[in-house]
Design a protein that fits this description.
homodimer, 12 helices
C-alpha cells in the first residue's frame, strides 16, 4: 500500500513509523508545508520522499491528514474533491466542525474520521516515536457516513499497530474530549503561567519540582499551533468545562479562607473517586 | 545503627527499605498508630518489630518522624523532651509552623528538618517502594538550628540512598513548596471534581482518557489525611498561589468568550517557557 502522510509531526510521523514497521506501507510519501520539517522527516526516514498534495493524492491508496484541526477543516473538502478510490483518514482532536463541513460531500464515504487517544507534549517530526499507538484507544466518529470498505481498511490498520477501536458520534466525541483531554491542557497552561508569574526564582522551581509538579505541568509544553485550533473548534464544550473547573477551584479557595478543613477533607475524598476510573 | 520509623507509610516505609538495603540500619523499629498499617509493615518486612513511641526513642540512635504534618507538629515537642544523644529527622512537606513550635526547645539541635522532594499519589505501608529517594532533592531547613553532628549524620544518610541535599530557610521552603507542589495537588483535586461532576459517563472517561489526562489528574488520588494538614499549615502561601491560578484560568476563559485566539496563542507561548525549567 502506498501512503501519503499530510503533516509529518508527532502523530503523522509516529503513524508513518508504524506503517513502515508493520509492513502495511510499501511507500510513504510526505506532504509538509514547513520546509524544515520536510527535510527532517526525510532525514529521519519517516517518509521516502516529499511531494505536493495533489500529486500525492493521485499516487497513493491511503491519505492520512495529520495537520492541526484548522488545516484539516480547510484541506479536507479539497482532498475529497480529488479522491476517487483512495481512503482518507483524518486524526484531528475535534470532530464536529470538521465532519459538518464535508457532511454533504459526494466523496464523504472515502473519509474515516479517527482520533487516536495518544500523544505527547512534543511536536514536529522529531517528536515522532515508535509504538505511540500501541495499547491506545482510537475513536472512529460517525461510522455510518463512511464506506464499509474504507472503515474495514482503517480498522485493520489501527488494529495492526496495536490500537483498540471505539465508536462515537462526533458531537459526543467533542463533548467527552473537552472533559478528558482539552481541559487538562488548559489547567496545565494556567498552572505553568501561575508558577512562572509568581515564582521568580527559576532555580527554586528546578530544585523543588518533584514528579507531581512535573506531571501536572508537562502538557504546558504543548504547541499553540496544535491547541489554539482545537480550543477554537471545541470552544462551546471547553468553556462549559472551564466554568465548572473555576467553580471547583473557587469552592476550595473559599474553604481555605473559611478554614473549613472538614468540608475540604470531604471534597478530597470525592476527588479520590477518580481512582476507580484512572488506574 | 538502630532506627525508629514513626509512621510507616509511603515515605517512612520507603525510607525503611533504603536504610535496610544500604546497611545503614541494623534494626528497624516501627511506631504506628494504625494497627492494620502496623501489621502490614511487619508482614512486608519494612520494620523488624512494632513498639510504642517512648520505648522506641529510648532504644534507638535515629528517630524518623514520617507522619502527617499535623501529627509531626503535635508529636515533635514530646519526642524532643525525651531525646538525649539521638538524632531526630522529620520529613514533613511544610516547615514553618513545625519549626516555630520547637524553636526554643532545649533539644532543638538534635532535630534535622528535611523535605525529600519525592513521593507518589499512594499512601500507607503498601505504597512503600525501593529507590524512592534515588536522584531526588532533599531540602534541609534552618540548618543553623541543628547540631553539626546531627546534620552530618542526616546528610550522610540521604546521600547514601542517592539524594542530593539543598538548603533553605523554613519560610522560603513553604513559599516555594506552595508553588511547585501544593498548588499542583489543588489543581488536580479540582480537575478530578470537575470531570466527575460534568462527565456522568464513567465509561467515556475510561475510554478516552489518554496519558495527558492521567498525568494531570493522578495527584487527585492523594490522601486527605496527608494533604489537609499541609494546606492548613501552609494556608497563607497556598491561598496566594491559588488566587493567581484562578486569575490565569479566568484570563483564558475571557479570551475564549471573546474569541481572542491571538491573545490566547501568546499566553500558550508564555506557558511554553516552562520547557526551560522542567525537562
Amino acid at each position: 500500500m502506498q501512503v501519503a502522510i499530510v503533516g509529518i509531526g508527532l502523530i503523522g510521523g509516529s503513524l508513518a513509523l508504524e506503517l513502515r514497521r508493520s509492513g502495511l506501507a510499501t511507500e510513504l510519501i510526505g506532504v509538509e508545508a514547513n520546509p524544515d520539517h520536510a527535510q527532517k522527516a526525510v532525514q529521519k526516514k519517516l517518509v521516502d520522499r516529499i511531494c505536493c498534495l495533489d500529486e500525492a493524492i493521485d499516487k497513493v491508496d491511503l491519505i492520512v491528514l495529520a495537520v492541526p484541526v484548522n488545516v484539516i477543516l480547510h484541506l479536507l473538502p479539497t482532498v475529497l474533491d480529488r479522491v476517487d478510490r483512495q481512503v482518507v483518514i483524518e486524526v484531528g482532536s475535534t470532530k464536529e466542525k470538521i465532519l459538518q463541513a464535508v457532511k454533504q460531500h459526494p466523496r464523504r464515504g472515502r473519509l474515516v474520521a479517527t482520533h487516536p487517544m495518544a500523544g505527547t507534549e512534543y511536536s514536529g517530526p522529531e517528536a515522532a516515536i515508535p509504538q505511540l499507538f500501541h495499547g491506545k484507544n482510537v475513536v472512529i466518529c460517525d461510522l455510518d457516513d463512511s464506506d464499509p470498505d474504507a472503515v474495514e481498511q482503517v480498522k485493520n490498520i489501527y488494529e495492526t499497530i496495536g490500537s483498540r477501536i471505539i465508536y462515537m458520534d462526533s458531537a459526543s466525541h467533542d463533548l467527552h474530549a473537552a472533559y478528558v483531554s482539552h481541559i487538562s491542557h488548559i489547567t496545565s497552561f494556567a498552572l505553568a503561567l501561575t508558577v512562572l508569574e509568581k515564582e521568580k526564582e527559576e532555580k527554586a522551581i528546578f530544585d523543588l519540582a518533584s514528579g507531581g509538579f512535573a506531571s501536572t505541568v508537562r502538557l504546558a509544553k504543548s504547541s499553540p499551533d496544535t491547541w489554539i485550533p482545537i480550543f477554537q473548534q471545541n470552544r462551546h464544550n471547553v468553556l462549559d468545562v472551564l466554568y465548572e473547573h473555576i467553580h471547583q477551584l473557587k469552592r476550595i479557595k473559599q474553604m481555605l479562607i473559611d478554614e473549613d478543613y472538614e468540608g475540604f477533607y470531604k471534597l478530597i475524598q470525592e476527588a479520590n473517586a477518580i481512582r476507580k476510573i484512572i488506574h
